[in-house]
Each structure stands twice: as C-alpha cells, then as structure tokens.
Amino acid sequence: MPDTANVIEMRGITKQFGSFKANDNINLTVKKGEVHALLGENGAGKSTLMNILSGLLEPTSGEIYVNGEKVHITSPSASSRLGIGMVHQHFMLVDKFTITENIILGTEKTKLGFLERREAQQEIKELSERYGLFVDPSAKVESVSVGMQQRAEILKTLYRGNDILILDEPTAVLTPQEITELMDILRSLTKEGKSIIIITHKIEEIKAVADRCTVIRRGKSVDTVDVKTTSQQELADLMVGRSVSFKVDKTPAQPKEPVLTIKNLVVKENRGLEAVKDLSLEVRAGEILGIAGIDGNGQSELIHAITGLTKVESGTITLEGKEIQNLPPRVITETGLGHIPEDRHKHGLILPMTIYENMALQTYYKEPFSKNNFLNKEAMQKSARKLIEEYDVRTQSENSTAESLSGGNQQKAIIAREISRQPKFLIAAQPTRGLDVGAIEYIHRNLVEQRDNGKAVLLMSFELDEVMNVSDRIAVMYEGKIVGIVDPREVTEQELGLLMAGSSLEKAKALESQSGKESANVK
Amino acid sequence: MLSENKKTLTNLTVPILSVVLGLVLGALIMLGFGYDPIAGYQSMINGALGSPFYIGETLRYASPLIIIGLGFSIANSAGFFNIGLSGQALMGWLVSVWVAISFPDVSGLILLPVSVIAGVLAGAIWAGIAGVLRAYFGTSEVIITIMLNYTALHVTNYLIRNVLTESSDATARIPEQASLRMDWLSQLAGGSRVNAGLFIAIVVTILVWIFMTKTTMGYEIRSVGMNPFASQYAGMNAKKNIILSMFISGGLAGLGGVLEGMGTFNNIFVQAGIPNIGFDGMAVALLGLSHPLGIVFSGLLFAMLKIGGASMPLGSGVPTEVVDIVIASIIFFVGANYLIRFFINKFSGKKDVKGGVK
Ligand SMILES: Nc1ncnc2c1ncn2[C@@H]1O[C@H](COP(=O)(O)OP(=O)(O)OP(=O)(O)O)[C@@H](O)[C@H]1O
Ligand SMILES: [Mg+2]
After folding, report:
1. Domain with CATH 3.40.50.300 in chain A
2. Within an 8 Å CB–CB cutoff, is residue B3 touching chain A?
3. Which of A77, A401, A493, B138 is most exposed by smallest CB count within 10 Å?
4. Can you tell me the distance from the alpha carbon of A226 to that of A212, in angstroms, rounded to the nearest whole number?
C-alpha cells in the first residue's frame, strides 16, 4: 500500500452496559485504502465498537483518532462529517418511503424548497449502475426484498460520499453472485482511496477481500493479523478460542412417510403477481430438503404460504395428513410446524419485550406457562433460562429485552424456541444468517439431529455451501417453480448455480460436460 | 441492569419536567397579568387539599379521570389511539342513568350493579364499533372514534330532550338506592360529593394492572401493539385483539361516565359540547406513561389543578380566565410530552441503537 497513514485509530475503547463490558479495552487501527475485517463470535462486541465509531453509542472510556486527530464522536452526523458512514447490521430504512427517499434522507437537495427528486434519482441510478448495486429507486422499501434493502443501505453511504465505510455484516443477506460483486466493489472503492471496515462471519470473504483482520473475543481485541499469511482455520480458531470444524457430519438420510405435501400451489405476492406458480413438493420425515434459489424467486412467498402468513390462491398444502392452506397460523403451528423466519426482527421477535416473553411466543397460552388465562412468569423464566443455557444465548439474563441481544444471539434465541417445541415439521429460512462459525456448526448439527429424530426439515438458504452441506435433497426454485430436484452428493456447485439461474437440468449438465468438468449424475 | 434503570429515569424525567415547565409557565402568565404566582399556587393547593371537603372533591374528580386514563392506555398498548373516550363516557353516563330512572322500584342490590354494567357495556359497544371497523375494513380508529364523539353527543341530547324528559334539559334524579353516593364518606369529607366511585377506581386500577401484566390476554394485547407481524407469526388473532382492546378501552371510558352519572351528578343533562373528561383522561394516560400507577398519580394531579384552580379567584384574586390559561399551559406541556421526549433523546447523546427500523 502506498499510503499507510492510519485513518482510524481506536485506543483502549471500553463500553459498559450496566456492569457488563461489551467492549473491554479494544484497540483498532485502520490504514488508508485498506479493507479491514473484524472477526468475532456472536456477541463479541463488534457492532458495539462500530456503533461507537459511527456515533450511535458513546464509549465509557478510550480515545478515537481520525486522520491522526483526536475526536469526540457524539452523533451519527458528527461521524458523517468526519467521513465515516455505516451500513448497519439491521437496516435503518423507513418502510413507507421509496428507496430514493431513503437514500437522500437527511441530505436532501432542494430547489426553492422542493425536493429535487428527479436529479437524486438520476444520481442514484448512476451510482447503482457504476457499482452494480441493482435497486428499484421508486419502489417502497416495504415491498422489496431484504437483499435489495441491503443494497439500498450501501448506496446510501456511497451517496453521501463518505470515505471511511463501515459495513456490519453486509453479505449476510446477499446471494453468492451478489457477494462476489460486492467484493469487486469493495476493491474498486479502496483503489479510489476509501477505507473499509467490514464485519463478517464468513472467513472466506475475509480471505477474499481483506488486507488485515482484527479478532475480537468476548469484548477484547485478541490480535490483528495479516490476512494473506493467515489460514482460514487459523482465523476460525483464533476467533472461537478452540478448533472448529467446517464440515457437517451426517449419515445418509432415512426418509420415511411424507410430512408435508404441496400440490399445485399458487401464491400471489403483494403486488398481485404470481410469485409461486403451480408448485408441488414433498418433504419426508427424516430428511432435510433444501431449497436453493436466488433471492426473489418465490421462496419467501412459498414459506409464508405454508406458515399461514400469506393467503394461498389455489392448490393444497397437507401437513401431517391435514390440509392447512389458508388456516390461521396458530392451527398450523399446533398441527406441528416450527418456523425459523427469514426476517427475525419483523416476524421472529418482539424486540421491546423480554427474552422470556419472546421464548413463549407460541406457547404462552398453554400449561405450564399459563393456567386459566393467567401467565406463570416463573415457569416462563425457568424455561427461558434453560434454553439460554442449552443454546448458549449470550445475555445477561432472561429478563433482558430481545433488542439488547447481539444479532446472532437473537437468532439463537429464535432457533432455541422453535426447535424446543419439538415440531414434526421445521422450516428454517436462512437459519444461520449472521451467525459465527461456531454457532453455525451448532445449528447445522441441530438441524441434522432433528432429522435423525424423525422430523422433516425444510431448509431455505441463499448460501450454496449451506444447502449443499446440510440438505439430503435440493429443490431448486426459479421464478416460482421447482425447476429440478437434485442430490447434493451428485451435483456440483456450478450445476446448481446454473439451475438457479434458470437453465434446465439437461442444459446445466451439458454445459458442465462441455466445459470439461466431471459430469455429475442427477437424480 | 443500569441501562434499564437509566431508561426508567428518562421515562420519569419527561412527565415531571412537563409538570414543572407547565407550573413555571403558569407562574409567568400570572406575573405577566400582575398577579402573585406564589399566592396563586398557594390558594390552588389549599383549594385542592386544604380541608376534608376539598380533598373529597379532588378524589371525586380524580376517580373517573383515572378510569378513563386506564381505558386509553389499554387501547394504546395494542397500538390504537382511542380518541373517542368522551363519546364512550357519555354513552356510559346516559345508559346507566336511563336504566336507573326506568326502574325506580327495584332494589338497589339489583338496580345499582345492573345500571353500572349497562353503562360499561354502552361505552364498550361504542368503542367496539370502531374496533370492528378497524379489524374488518382497516378503517382508521382515530377518525371513527372522533365521529362517534359527535354522534354520542347528539344522540344523548336528543334522548334527554325527547325520550327521557318532555323537552327538559335534565333528567330526574336517579332513585336513591341506585346512587353511588355514600353518606358516611360524604360526611367524612365535609359533605363533598366523593362517592363509591373512588373505590371503584382503586379496584379497577389493580384489575387493569393484573390484566395487562399477568394474563394471556394482556400479553397478547401488548404483543400486538409492539409488533403485529410477530404476533401474527405467533398465531395471535389480530382481529380479536383489536376488537377486544377497543371494547375494554371503551368499557372503562363508559365506567368513567357511569361515575359521573351515578356518583357525582345523579342525573344527566344536555351537554353544550363533547365533554372534556375523555380528553383529560387521555392527557392523564399520556402523563402517566400508560402505567397504572402513573395514571393514578397524574389523575390526582389533574384533579388538584381543576378543583384547586376553582379556589384561585377567591383565594388570591387571580381571575378564572387566567386560572384556565395556567391549567391549559400545564396540560399543554403534558400533551407536548412526546416533543419533550424527542428533545431529550436528541440532546442527551444517549441513543438506543438496537432495534433497527421502527
Ligand atoms: N443496549 C444494550 N444493552 C445491554 N447490552 C447490550 C446492548 N447492546 C449490546 N449489548 C450486549 O453487548 C454484547 C455485544 O453486542 P454486539 O451487538 O456488539 O455483538 P456483535 O459482536 O455485533 O455480535 P453479532 O455477530 O451477533 O452481531 C452482547 O452480549 C449484547 O447482548
Ligand atoms: Mg453485530
């Protein structure tokens, strides 16, 4: 690197929440023009540290230097004036506004008091084309996919012209292709002299894009290493403090009777277009069926239809021998459904409520959590304490609010709740989004365990790795249809990628063998 | 947990600050008009708490306010803004008095509870209309309840003039045995109109607290209010909770009206406009942060302002109009509650970042 001046230097940063130290004497230096990764387990304190840098939190003690000058960052706008822009782990977008409105929010350009919407829209379009961040500028945030929301967030920072970008788990919601594109964007940004701090749990991403990496463990900075000279395994071990395994251990599936049967399902999305088109599918007891596909091909609508959150236009869904299409969510849940939802803040948790109240979200009306319509708080707390312990949810106590949990621990709390209800059929939509490798290992083991206990598991993930490693069968979804069902042991990632992009099974195979790769047998 | 404590602290700062600011502004206004604010406030306190009679009147005034405030808080917890408390209270008042005067010969043991329940139901149904419309047609409860305020006003006045009396402005008094008045209590309080409504308010406060924190229904209402999507995911019935919370909210407002009809006035008379009591109850709930205990305190404070304020012209020569401005300015700051909270958040530098999109 030609210019190695430190653009950011954080010295001895400590942040206390009550008696709990989320950050404990952390040191971090970021050089100009580098991509600096932060790696650490869920709840290690990464978001807290970055929230301090972006002015959302004030440190209990410690000093911050920006471009060599000591600064006090008291608000996000102060941080922005210093050239720091942050894309948060959980989006800070206004649902009812369009993407353009969200991007220009706070920096609106006006002419005679009128918003220069058209020019802003133009500028956003240019930015989005230049960096390949595809968005629909005039769509309302509430009607676009999570992936597009994330891209809008990234655009927002670029639009403000910040030259120190903080990205808190930006890739968690992106598809593999989008991640590759993002990596290219990051590289070109650093070429323009911008510095980037990126938080991610995916070590291969760090290897791909970062120059240096600071590892944080339980609030303390453990080490800053040069990424080129450190192996993935070393990074993972450094972060967890023990050695972790990346491989999912499992025996071949022993599928039994079908638990979920979908026939000719049609579901419309909120704009009235058909998102799921005449789809049929079967999930059997004792197997994990993976759904692979690029974001926006009807996966979310399919899951919402099964779980009763969206109306079914036509077709049948049979769970445990009972037709459940268009039944109320509670009836479906009681028929034997567990659901780890894709959007944990919208559906999964009631953030201002305590953890123990959240853990009883579907069971509060049953014994022992209530009797004669009166809640039994002690029973709820006791069961929550047990789950927190069992699933290693890092929190001060079950009485803390769900919003005080780190992103990954929120996810663990939901998974604990859903699995512990022992449903015959479990839907896991993006279950490991935002989780550290240790936790992912744990969740994957849990899903396999559910399967081995004779449960049927439907796994929806945008991550090819995850679908390939965990599933027993993979259904590829494209434009609302299942375009192929393949055996993960007999398909390559490339073939899967082609199927996801809309090629037919034969074509994908032909293309594969043409390119000289080993031909794969497809079931 | 310290951060929790800190939160409660900022929560309490807001209402206390609004009251203090209101009192200061009131003092400035009195000064501006050439009156002595200290003497003014002294006579206000005297007029609210200075004798058993005044204490009795203050408690009498506070009782329905507290109940109506609780009513507001329940709808508010579910995420609804019940602005029609006045109309619901009026319906409760009307129906309870109507039932009571219709059966002058029935024993109080039956007549009293039947009239109270009829009044509560009237309020509940009045609010329930807005709830049903909201649940099934997505109509804004704010607009519907405002319109229902006017409907209630005109229906009441029409019925008083044409059905309950022969074009008179006030009904006959309700039969003795149906009144909430208690002689011993009145005598204890120097002959004031304080009545069994006081005990009803205490019991209802405790019941509402238990309902909201200890029952599954309260848990559902809070869940729906905080995150309707997660509540749907959890299998809670949104429609049921919308209607239920509005129904209970209106029932409590109706009960507030019952206290006016069967406790304070013992009849009902033609109203010049939508009664203030519903809006005051709303302010009481906002000042009390929608918490039962907070609502009790703010209800008492409101009653002290109103009852004590009535003594200010005599006690310190501050004319009624200025007293009204003083009270209004205090209420204004209470209403500006949200605004003050906003500024505290903005300038204290302490922000809660978790939670993402609101
Ligand atoms: N406002 C708060 N009040 C109390 N504790 C908090 C608060 N915010 C964060 N914490 C705690 O601080 C710790 C660090 O949280 P942080 O969000 O920084 O973790 P993280 O490293 O970003 O984890 P993840 O990878 O899961 O996002 C967690 O244990 C969390 O529960
Ligand atoms: Mg985080």
Report:
1. 6-240, 258-347+422-491
2. yes
3. B138
4. 5
